[in-house]
Write a structure and sequence with these properties.
CATH superfamily of the largest domain: Regulatory protein AraC
CATH topology of the largest domain: Jelly Rolls
Radius of gyration: 19 Å
Protein name: Transcriptional regulator, AraC family
Pfam families: AraC_binding, HTH_18
CATH class of the largest domain: Mainly Beta
GO molecular function: DNA-binding transcription factor activity; sequence-specific DNA binding
Number of strands: 10
Keywords: DNA-binding, Transcription, Transcription regulation
Strand content: 15-25%
InterPro entries: AraC-bd, Homeodomain-like_sf, HTH-like, HTH_AraC, Tscrpt_reg_AraC-type_HTH
Order of helices and strands: EEEEEEEEEHEHHHHHHHHH
Strand order of the largest sheet: 1-2-9-4-7-10
Shape: globular
Largest sheet: 6 strands, antiparallel
Amino acid sequence: MRIAFNKPAETMPLYCDSVGYDWNQPPIHRLNGYYAYHWLQTESGAGVINIDHQSISLQANQGILLRPRVAHEYHPTGKEPWKVSFLTFNGTLCDSLSDFLKLADFLVIDTVSPELTSFIPEVLNEFNNNHPIALLDQSVQIYKFIMLLKQNHLLNNHRYQDATITTPILQYIAAHYAEPITNDKLSKATSYSVTYQNRVFKRLYDMTPLEYLTDYRMRKAKELLLTNPTLEIGEIAPKVGFHNPSHFIDQFKKYYKATPSHFRKFI
């Protein structure tokens, strides 16, 4: 899904140029770069971006922020489609905020946080509104996105030593969230004890791996409800790891203060 916008008639501190997720990314060649700030994140598959005489691989759960007018090209690698989410933005505040990020021509995020991963799907429908008040809300959300980038970058600088624990957990959950997952299964993926892996994971993400699993399943359920209006609730439940539809409905209501049917009807 992709939404592109016209440049606002009124000068804005921050505004969205385009946004999308679950996008099947084709090859792109930009000799003069892009005219706006550009965030690109891999959801599944993989791609390579060539920039400043470097080839940077973007695997699942990795992303890059590009400064405007920086020449680059990127393309999928491997046999699987390269599914990405992206956000392009601009505005009068961008240059000062890029200084805050210490952004040179680009900034690579090796492990994208859950908050950044869920940001684009959650705001995409909110952004599809040209009302002046909605444009102000859009500016606030992009500011939040930049702060999440800064937070994620700082966290990454402190968690390289823990990547052997957190990365396998994140990858395992992304690949198997529709299946039964236990702490013991995650322990086999990390080769660390349940107690130690959970302590490291919670220190970095402020939740246990199984709490993150539930959060991930809820976000996937929300995506399915928004993008597949013909799917019955009983069909969505097992697709996101709930083989008891009643339990799925209870969990969804706990997270979003509405049943899946009510959420779909009034969103």
